[in-house]
Amino acid sequence: WAKADGKGQWALFDPVRNANEVAQFRLSAKMPAALERGEFYVDYQPLVGLRDFGVVGVEALVRWAHPELGRLGPDKFIALAEETGLIVQLGRWVLREACRQARKWQDDFGAAAPFISVNLAVRQSRDPNLVAHVAEILEETGLEPSRLQLELTESAIMGTADEPLDALRALSRMGVRIAIDDFGTGYSNLAYLRHLPVHELKIAGSFMEGLRDAECADPVDARIVGTLVDLAHALGLTVTAEGVETHAQARRMAEIGCETGQGYLFARPCTPEDIRDFIASRLD
Ligand code: C2E
Ligand code: MG
Ligand code: MG
Ligand code: MG
Questions:
Q1: Helices (H) and strands (E) in the chain, counts
Q2: What is the ipTM of this complex?
Q3: What backbone phi and psi angles, to 5 degrees, belong to 141?
Q4: Closest ligand 1 atom to the C-alpha of 269?
Q5: Residue 1: pLDDT band by 50, 70, 90 thresholds?
Q6: Fewest CB within a 10 Å sphere: which of 62, 162, 192, 231?
Q7: CA 168/CA 198 separation, integer angstroms
Q8: In the record, which residues are listed under signal peptide (predicted)?
Q9: Is the CB of 264 inside a 6 Å radius of any atom of ligand 1?
C-alpha cells in the first residue's frame, strides 16, 4: 500500500491518517448488521411555538447504540452511510420508526398532535423510490400526510436536476411538508426559493450566537435573521429558529416574527415518553 515515491522512501504512509481510515472503514462495514440487529434508535426534540410554547412539531434524530463504542451521534456515521449508500435503508428505517411514533401522538392528542420532522440525506432525495416509500410508510402507519415534514439541506434542494424537485412536488401534493434545514449556511439562490415546494425554513443555529444575551445582541446578526424571516414570510413560509439556548434568543426571535424555536432552552433530544409528557404539560 504505502507506495515508494520513486526514491525508495515510504513517503505516503501516514500512520495516524491510516489508523483513522481503518477505523472509519470498520465502522461503515458494521452498519448493515447493526441496522439488522436494531442498534439504531431515534431521539426526539420538540419544535416549540414562540408565542404559546405549545409543541408544534418534533424532529427525529437518529443515534447508534454501538456495543463497544457507546452511543454515537449522527455526526459520527451519517456521512459514512452516505458514502456506502446504506443511508437509503437507514433513512427509510428512521422514517418508518418516526412515523410510527408520530401516529401514537396523533392518537393521543388528536388535533393538537405535532408533526414529525425527519431529516433526508442528499442521497435519499435523489432516490427514485422516495415518493413510493413515503406513501407506503404513511399508509402503513396511518399517519396523516400533513403530520409529516421532511427536512432537506440547501445543497440537497438547490441547483439539482429536475427529478428530486419533481419528487418534492409530488410529496407536497400528497400533503407532506417540506423544510429547508440549516438555512443560511449554504449558498442559496434566494429568488429560486419561490419556485420550490417548500413550507418551512429552519434558520441555522449559528445565527443564534449573536443574539445570545439581550445586552450584547450583535446588530448585524439580528438584521440578517430579521431579513431571513421577512423573506420567508414574503414567500409564505413558516420559520423555525434552530439552536435556541437562551431566553434572550427566544424573545428576540419572537419579536422578529419567527413562529417556532428548537433548542436546549426548551428541551434536549429525548425519548418518545418524555415528548408525550412535554406535549401534555403544555396543553392544559
Ligand atoms: P440538524 O438536522 O440540524 O439537527 C439539529 C442538531 O442540533 C441536532 O444534533 C440537535 O441535537 C442539535 N441541537 C438541538 N438543539 C440545540 C441547541 O440548543 N444547541 C446546540 N448546540 N445544538 C442543538 P444531532 O442530533 O447531533 O444531529 C446532527 C445532524 O445529523 C442533524 O442536524 C442532521 O443533519 C443529521 N441527522 C440526524 N438524524 C438524521 C437522520 O435520521 N437522517 C439524516 N440524513 N441526517 C440526520
Ligand atoms: Mg434537521
Ligand atoms: Mg438543522
Ligand atoms: Mg445540521
A1: 10, 9
A2: 0.98
A3: -90, -20
A4: 11
A5: very low
A6: 162
A7: 8
A8: none
A9: yes
pLDDT tens by residue, 69-97: 999 999 999 999 999 999 999 999 999 99
Q: Could you give the C-alpha distances from 211 to 233, 242, 261, 267, in angstroms and in order? A: 21, 12, 14, 19
Q: At 47, which helix (H) or strand (E)?
A: strand 40-49
Q: Say if residues 250 and 213 touch (Cβ distance below 8 Å).
A: no
Q: How far is the CA of 96 from the centre of ligand 2 (A)?
A: 16
Residue showing cell 428530486: 164
Which residue, by CA, sits nearest to atom 34 of ligand 1? 119
In short, whether 154's Cβ falls inside 6 Å of ligand 1 is: no
Cell of 40: 439504531
Global confidence as pTM = 0.93
The residues near 281 (Cβ < 8 Å, ≥ 6 apart) are: none
What is d(CA 87, CA 195) in angstroms, rounded to the nearest whole number? 28
Contacts of 17 (CB under 8 A, 6+ apart): none
Interatomic CA distance for residues 201 and 184, integer angstroms:
9
Dist. CA 27–CA 49, nearest whole Å? 39
How far, in Å, CA of 182 to CA of 241, rounded? 9
